[in-house]
Amino acid sequence: MFEKINIFLSRRRNWAIPYILFLGFFVVVPLLLIAWYAFTDMDGTFTVENFQRFMKHPEALNTFIYSVGIAIITTLVCIVLGYPAAWILSQKQFNTSRTLVVLFILPMWINILIRTLATVALFDFLHFPLGEGALIFGMVYNFPPFMIYPIYNTLLKMDKNLIEAAQDLGASPFQVFTKTIFPLSMPGVSSGVMMVFMPTISTFAIAELLTMNNIKLFGTTIQENINNGLWNYGAALSLIMLLLIGITGLINGDANKSANDGGLI
Protein backbone atom coordinates (compact mmCIF):
# COMPACT_ATOMS: atom_id res chain seq x y z
CA MET A 1 0.00 0.00 0.00
CA PHE A 2 2.81 2.42 0.91
CA GLU A 3 4.48 1.60 -2.38
CA LYS A 4 1.35 2.61 -4.28
CA ILE A 5 1.16 5.85 -2.30
CA ASN A 6 4.81 6.62 -3.11
CA ILE A 7 4.21 5.93 -6.80
CA PHE A 8 1.13 8.17 -6.70
CA LEU A 9 3.04 11.01 -5.01
CA SER A 10 6.03 10.65 -7.34
CA ARG A 11 3.95 11.71 -10.33
CA ARG A 12 3.94 15.48 -10.58
CA ARG A 13 0.56 15.71 -12.23
CA ASN A 14 -1.06 14.06 -9.21
CA TRP A 15 -0.04 17.03 -7.06
CA ALA A 16 -2.44 19.15 -9.13
CA ILE A 17 -5.47 17.09 -8.06
CA PRO A 18 -6.14 19.05 -4.81
CA TYR A 19 -5.96 22.31 -6.75
CA ILE A 20 -8.30 20.95 -9.44
CA LEU A 21 -10.79 19.84 -6.79
CA PHE A 22 -10.57 23.23 -5.05
CA LEU A 23 -10.98 25.06 -8.36
CA GLY A 24 -13.94 22.93 -9.37
CA PHE A 25 -15.79 23.27 -6.07
CA PHE A 26 -15.13 26.94 -5.32
CA VAL A 27 -14.94 28.43 -8.85
CA VAL A 28 -16.62 26.25 -11.46
CA VAL A 29 -19.63 25.21 -9.35
CA PRO A 30 -20.44 28.80 -8.21
CA LEU A 31 -20.18 30.03 -11.81
CA LEU A 32 -22.54 27.30 -12.98
CA LEU A 33 -24.97 28.22 -10.19
CA ILE A 34 -24.84 31.88 -11.24
CA ALA A 35 -25.60 30.90 -14.84
CA TRP A 36 -28.43 28.59 -13.68
CA TYR A 37 -30.11 31.24 -11.54
CA ALA A 38 -29.61 33.93 -14.20
CA PHE A 39 -31.50 31.96 -16.85
CA THR A 40 -34.31 30.69 -14.62
CA ASP A 41 -37.19 32.22 -12.67
CA MET A 42 -38.36 31.55 -9.13
CA ASP A 43 -39.96 28.28 -10.27
CA GLY A 44 -36.81 27.05 -12.03
CA THR A 45 -38.24 27.62 -15.53
CA PHE A 46 -35.86 28.76 -18.26
CA THR A 47 -36.27 32.46 -19.07
CA VAL A 48 -34.38 35.53 -20.23
CA GLU A 49 -36.70 37.83 -18.31
CA ASN A 50 -33.95 38.69 -15.82
CA PHE A 51 -31.79 40.21 -18.56
CA GLN A 52 -34.78 41.96 -20.13
CA ARG A 53 -35.57 43.43 -16.75
CA PHE A 54 -32.04 44.83 -16.54
CA MET A 55 -32.32 46.44 -19.98
CA LYS A 56 -35.75 47.91 -19.17
CA HIS A 57 -34.86 49.01 -15.64
CA PRO A 58 -33.38 52.54 -15.91
CA GLU A 59 -31.95 52.57 -12.39
CA ALA A 60 -29.95 49.36 -12.79
CA LEU A 61 -28.75 50.33 -16.28
CA ASN A 62 -27.74 53.81 -15.16
CA THR A 63 -25.93 52.34 -12.14
CA PHE A 64 -24.03 50.01 -14.45
CA ILE A 65 -23.00 52.85 -16.77
CA TYR A 66 -22.06 55.03 -13.79
CA SER A 67 -19.95 52.22 -12.30
CA VAL A 68 -18.09 51.80 -15.58
CA GLY A 69 -17.43 55.55 -15.62
CA ILE A 70 -16.10 55.53 -12.04
CA ALA A 71 -13.92 52.51 -12.88
CA ILE A 72 -12.48 54.26 -15.97
CA ILE A 73 -11.74 57.46 -14.02
CA THR A 74 -10.09 55.50 -11.20
CA THR A 75 -8.02 53.47 -13.66
CA LEU A 76 -6.83 56.55 -15.57
CA VAL A 77 -5.85 58.39 -12.36
CA CYS A 78 -4.01 55.29 -11.12
CA ILE A 79 -2.08 55.14 -14.40
CA VAL A 80 -1.15 58.84 -14.16
CA LEU A 81 0.01 58.42 -10.56
CA GLY A 82 1.36 54.88 -10.78
CA TYR A 83 3.44 54.94 -13.96
CA PRO A 84 5.89 57.69 -12.83
CA ALA A 85 6.22 56.00 -9.44
CA ALA A 86 6.94 52.63 -11.08
CA TRP A 87 9.45 54.23 -13.46
CA ILE A 88 11.31 55.96 -10.61
CA LEU A 89 11.44 52.73 -8.58
CA SER A 90 12.86 50.84 -11.57
CA GLN A 91 15.87 53.15 -11.94
CA LYS A 92 19.35 51.96 -10.92
CA GLN A 93 19.62 54.11 -7.83
CA PHE A 94 16.41 52.59 -6.43
CA ASN A 95 16.15 49.02 -7.72
CA THR A 96 19.08 47.81 -5.59
CA SER A 97 16.93 48.32 -2.51
CA ARG A 98 13.47 46.85 -1.99
CA THR A 99 12.61 49.26 0.81
CA LEU A 100 10.84 51.84 -1.35
CA VAL A 101 8.99 49.12 -3.26
CA VAL A 102 7.76 47.65 0.01
CA LEU A 103 6.61 51.10 1.14
CA PHE A 104 4.46 51.42 -1.99
CA ILE A 105 3.01 47.93 -1.59
CA LEU A 106 2.61 48.19 2.21
CA PRO A 107 -1.01 49.49 2.03
CA MET A 108 -2.01 46.20 0.36
CA TRP A 109 -1.16 44.41 3.62
CA ILE A 110 -3.98 46.25 5.38
CA ASN A 111 -7.57 45.19 4.82
CA ILE A 112 -9.36 47.39 2.31
CA LEU A 113 -12.26 47.99 4.72
CA ILE A 114 -9.88 49.27 7.39
CA ARG A 115 -8.27 51.64 4.89
CA THR A 116 -11.69 52.86 3.78
CA LEU A 117 -12.85 53.43 7.36
CA ALA A 118 -9.65 55.39 7.95
CA THR A 119 -10.49 57.51 4.89
CA VAL A 120 -13.97 58.18 6.30
CA ALA A 121 -12.41 59.25 9.60
CA LEU A 122 -9.95 61.51 7.76
CA PHE A 123 -12.73 63.23 5.80
CA ASP A 124 -14.72 63.63 9.00
CA PHE A 125 -11.69 65.14 10.80
CA LEU A 126 -11.08 67.60 7.95
CA HIS A 127 -14.81 68.34 7.67
CA PHE A 128 -14.87 67.33 4.01
CA PRO A 129 -18.24 66.16 2.68
CA LEU A 130 -18.72 62.51 1.77
CA GLY A 131 -19.96 61.97 -1.78
CA GLU A 132 -18.74 61.41 -5.31
CA GLY A 133 -15.43 63.20 -4.68
CA ALA A 134 -14.79 61.09 -1.60
CA LEU A 135 -15.72 57.96 -3.57
CA ILE A 136 -13.16 58.66 -6.31
CA PHE A 137 -10.56 59.61 -3.70
CA GLY A 138 -11.17 56.36 -1.84
CA MET A 139 -10.90 54.32 -5.03
CA VAL A 140 -7.67 56.03 -6.07
CA TYR A 141 -6.30 55.69 -2.53
CA ASN A 142 -6.95 51.94 -2.39
CA PHE A 143 -5.86 50.72 -5.82
CA PRO A 144 -2.57 52.44 -6.96
CA PRO A 145 -0.36 49.59 -5.61
CA PHE A 146 -2.17 47.23 -8.00
CA MET A 147 -1.10 49.53 -10.84
CA ILE A 148 2.43 50.30 -9.66
CA TYR A 149 3.68 46.78 -9.05
CA PRO A 150 2.99 45.18 -12.48
CA ILE A 151 4.41 48.23 -14.28
CA TYR A 152 7.44 48.21 -11.98
CA ASN A 153 8.08 44.52 -12.68
CA THR A 154 7.84 45.08 -16.44
CA LEU A 155 10.17 48.08 -16.38
CA LEU A 156 12.65 46.27 -14.14
CA LYS A 157 12.86 43.29 -16.51
CA MET A 158 13.12 45.46 -19.62
CA ASP A 159 16.27 45.00 -21.71
CA LYS A 160 18.27 48.17 -21.02
CA ASN A 161 20.32 47.57 -24.18
CA LEU A 162 17.31 48.65 -26.24
CA ILE A 163 17.23 51.99 -24.41
CA GLU A 164 20.96 52.47 -24.93
CA ALA A 165 20.58 51.58 -28.61
CA ALA A 166 17.87 54.22 -29.03
CA GLN A 167 20.10 56.80 -27.33
CA ASP A 168 23.05 55.84 -29.53
CA LEU A 169 20.88 56.35 -32.61
CA GLY A 170 20.27 59.95 -31.55
CA ALA A 171 16.83 59.66 -29.97
CA SER A 172 15.90 62.40 -27.53
CA PRO A 173 14.77 61.45 -23.98
CA PHE A 174 11.17 62.03 -25.05
CA GLN A 175 11.59 59.79 -28.10
CA VAL A 176 13.31 57.12 -26.01
CA PHE A 177 10.31 57.06 -23.70
CA THR A 178 7.56 57.20 -26.35
CA LYS A 179 9.23 54.86 -28.86
CA THR A 180 11.00 52.40 -26.58
CA ILE A 181 10.14 52.46 -22.88
CA PHE A 182 6.39 52.99 -23.04
CA PRO A 183 5.64 50.41 -25.80
CA LEU A 184 7.73 47.77 -24.01
CA SER A 185 5.97 48.50 -20.70
CA MET A 186 2.47 48.03 -22.13
CA PRO A 187 2.09 44.46 -20.77
CA GLY A 188 2.58 45.85 -17.26
CA VAL A 189 0.16 48.70 -17.92
CA SER A 190 -2.45 46.25 -19.25
CA SER A 191 -2.06 44.03 -16.19
CA GLY A 192 -2.40 47.06 -13.94
CA VAL A 193 -5.54 48.18 -15.76
CA MET A 194 -7.08 44.76 -15.23
CA MET A 195 -6.15 44.70 -11.53
CA VAL A 196 -7.67 48.15 -10.95
CA PHE A 197 -10.66 48.18 -13.31
CA MET A 198 -12.14 44.81 -12.31
CA PRO A 199 -12.34 45.32 -8.51
CA THR A 200 -13.40 48.96 -8.93
CA ILE A 201 -16.46 48.14 -11.02
CA SER A 202 -17.57 45.35 -8.68
CA THR A 203 -16.88 46.88 -5.27
CA PHE A 204 -19.67 48.06 -3.01
CA ALA A 205 -18.19 48.57 0.47
CA ILE A 206 -16.14 51.62 -0.55
CA ALA A 207 -19.17 53.29 -2.13
CA GLU A 208 -21.38 52.58 0.87
CA LEU A 209 -18.89 53.93 3.41
CA LEU A 210 -17.61 56.98 1.51
CA THR A 211 -21.01 58.18 0.26
CA MET A 212 -23.16 57.14 3.26
CA ASN A 213 -24.91 54.78 0.84
CA ASN A 214 -26.15 57.75 -1.22
CA ILE A 215 -24.29 56.60 -4.36
CA LYS A 216 -24.72 53.07 -5.61
CA LEU A 217 -22.29 51.14 -7.74
CA PHE A 218 -23.13 48.00 -9.68
CA GLY A 219 -21.76 45.78 -6.92
CA THR A 220 -24.16 47.42 -4.46
CA THR A 221 -27.11 46.69 -6.75
CA ILE A 222 -26.12 43.01 -6.94
CA GLN A 223 -25.70 42.80 -3.17
CA GLU A 224 -29.08 44.41 -2.48
CA ASN A 225 -30.94 42.07 -4.82
CA ILE A 226 -29.33 38.95 -3.36
CA ASN A 227 -29.89 40.15 0.22
CA ASN A 228 -33.56 40.75 -0.64
CA GLY A 229 -33.94 37.20 -1.91
CA LEU A 230 -33.99 38.11 -5.62
CA TRP A 231 -31.38 35.50 -6.45
CA ASN A 232 -32.35 35.14 -10.11
CA TYR A 233 -32.13 38.83 -10.95
CA GLY A 234 -29.00 39.23 -8.82
CA ALA A 235 -27.38 36.29 -10.62
CA ALA A 236 -28.24 37.87 -13.99
CA LEU A 237 -26.58 41.12 -12.91
CA SER A 238 -23.54 39.14 -11.70
CA LEU A 239 -23.33 37.34 -15.03
CA ILE A 240 -23.44 40.66 -16.90
CA MET A 241 -20.57 41.92 -14.75
CA LEU A 242 -18.62 38.70 -15.34
CA LEU A 243 -19.11 39.06 -19.10
CA LEU A 244 -17.79 42.63 -18.93
CA ILE A 245 -14.76 41.43 -16.98
CA GLY A 246 -14.25 38.61 -19.49
CA ILE A 247 -14.38 41.02 -22.43
CA THR A 248 -11.90 43.28 -20.63
CA GLY A 249 -9.63 40.27 -20.11
CA LEU A 250 -9.76 39.38 -23.81
CA ILE A 251 -8.92 42.95 -24.79
CA ASN A 252 -6.08 42.92 -22.27
CA GLY A 253 -4.76 39.64 -23.71
CA ASP A 254 -4.84 41.01 -27.26
CA ALA A 255 -3.05 44.16 -26.11
CA ASN A 256 -0.32 42.11 -24.42
CA LYS A 257 0.08 39.93 -27.50
CA SER A 258 0.37 42.97 -29.77
CA ALA A 259 2.93 44.56 -27.46
CA ASN A 260 5.00 41.39 -27.29
CA ASP A 261 4.80 40.66 -31.01
CA GLY A 262 5.17 44.19 -32.24
CA GLY A 263 8.22 45.16 -30.24
CA LEU A 264 9.23 48.77 -30.73
CA ILE A 265 7.01 51.24 -32.52
Shape: globular
The succession of helices and strands, N to C, reads HHHHHHHHHHHHHHH
By DSSP (H or I, 4+ residues per run), the number of helices equals 15
End-to-end Cα distance: 61 Å
Sketch the major β-sheet. none
The percentage of residues in β strands lies in under 5%
Helicity, as a percent range: over 70%
Helix/strand/pairing category: mainly alpha
Mean pLDDT: 84
Q: Low-confidence runs (pLDDT<50, min 5 residues)?
A: none
Rounded to an integer, what's the Rg over CA atoms?
A: 23 Å
**Strands, total number:** 0
What does this structure look like?
The chain is an all-alpha fold and 265 residues long. The protein has 15 helices and no strands.
Secondary structure elements and pairings:
Layout: H1 2-10, H2 17-38, H3 49-56, H4 58-89, H5 92-95, H6 99-105, H7 112-126, H8 132-142, H9 144-157, H10 160-168, H11 173-184, H12 186-202, H13 205-210, H14 218-227, H15 231-262
Helix pairs in contact: 2-15, 3-15, 4-9, 4-12, 9-12, 10-11, 12-15, 14-15
